[in-house]
Design goal:
- The protein is of the alpha/beta class.
- 27% of the residues lie in helices and 28% in strands.
- The strands form three sheets. Strands 9-8-7-10-11-13-12-14 form an eight-stranded mixed sheet, sandwiched between helices. Strands 3-4-5-6 form a four-stranded antiparallel sheet, with helices on one face.
- A hairpin with a 2-residue loop joins strand 5 and strand 6.
- Helix 1 runs parallel beside helix 2, helix 1 runs antiparallel to helix 8 and helix 6 packs across helix 9.
- It is globular and about 50 Å long.
- About 3% of the residues have low confidence.
Length: 290
């Protein structure tokens, strides 16, 4: 789910919006007004992904750029990675990883088989990319990942515009940790708005399972002024916070990164989330997509 920082155009030259019915609802691929082979994927009007077929290294949404920074920073440049993507969308981040880190091996877990087929038909993957897509529930797919296999587990899962409850708990993070290598990172796209109760709970939950955390978000989201995305990264080794902060601050839509004591203080004593207490992330207001 992404907010306002995107290009949208109903028609560009001879290109028109492509529409299909998928498991999650009405899927639309809207042509980008400024890029000749770029498209935005929307599900029931909620923007999900942006893909430039000519330049898979271009990340249009702010939250995807921030995840892209983490893909760049998790290991030396061009080093292949083992990556698990929970949530596929238009496979934007899998395409980015394949382009920036050739020979990476990637598993995408996307429950909506009709969406996968729609994306593959209209936004085909590079046949050289080593990307396997499984059409199963994210938590069930994660359970199939071998112990310690992943350098990165990226969670970007939305049912409509909400993250399902069973992907927000400490028990879910136990399986993330099982799948990660000892030096691996967990990265999650989180969406919340005032009073940021969901975001605080997700940080508190991750802190019970990982020793190092950092979170990037727009300043207005941090202040609880607007619904938006935040990118969480968690690991059991020191994170390159200074470089991540620099990159996020110099993005086209600059953000702010918090970590350490400031991030702990932000939770305000919010308890961690368990399977028994988990609820889906909040429904964004209609204004989030205008």
């Amino acid at each position: 789910m992404a907010g306002k920082d995107r290009n949208r155009g109903r028609q560009r030259g001879g290109a028109e919006t492509v529409v299909g019915q998928v498991g999650g609802g009405r899927a639309e691929l809207e042509p980008d007004r400024e890029r000749s082979r770029a498209w935005t994927l929307l599900i029931d009007g909620a923007p999900q992904s942006h893909v430039d077929l000519d330049d898979p290294g271009h990340l249009d949404f702010s939250y995807q750029r921030r995840i892209g920074h983490l893909i760049d920073l998790v290991a030396p440049a061009r080093q292949p990675l083992n990556v698990v993507h929970l949530g596929g969308g238009a496979l934007t981040l899998a395409r980015y990883t394949a382009a920036s880190r050739p020979r990476s091996t990637q598993q995408v877990v996307e429950i909506d088989a009709a969406l996968v087929a729609f994306v593959r038909e209209h936004l085909p993957l590079d046949p050289q990319a080593r990307v396997r897509v499984r059409a199963v529930d994210a938590r069930a797919g994660l359970a199939k990942v071998p112990d310690g296999w992943a350098d990165l587990v990226i969670a970007d899962v939305f049912s409509g515009a909400r993250t399902p409850a069973h992907l927000t708990s400490a028990e879910f993070l136990d399986d993330v940790r099982r799948a990660l290598s000892p030096t691996g990172w967990y990265v999650a796209n989180l969406a919340d708005g005032p009073p940021l109760a969901h975001l605080r709970g997700q940080i508190a939950t991750a802190a019970t399972r990982f020793t190092e955390l950092a979170l990037a978000a727009d300043p207005v989201v941090w202040r609880g002024k607007r619904f938006g995305n935040a990118v969480l990264v968690a690991a059991d080794r020191p994170l390159p916070v200074a470089e991540f902060t620099r990159r996020v601050a110099t993005d086209p839509h600059p953000g702010r990164v918090e970590h350490g004591r400031a991030l702990t203080a932000f939770t305000g004593g919010t308890p961690p989330v368990s399977d028994a207490s988990a609820v889906a992330s909040p429904q964004p207001p209609p204004s989030a997509f205008r």
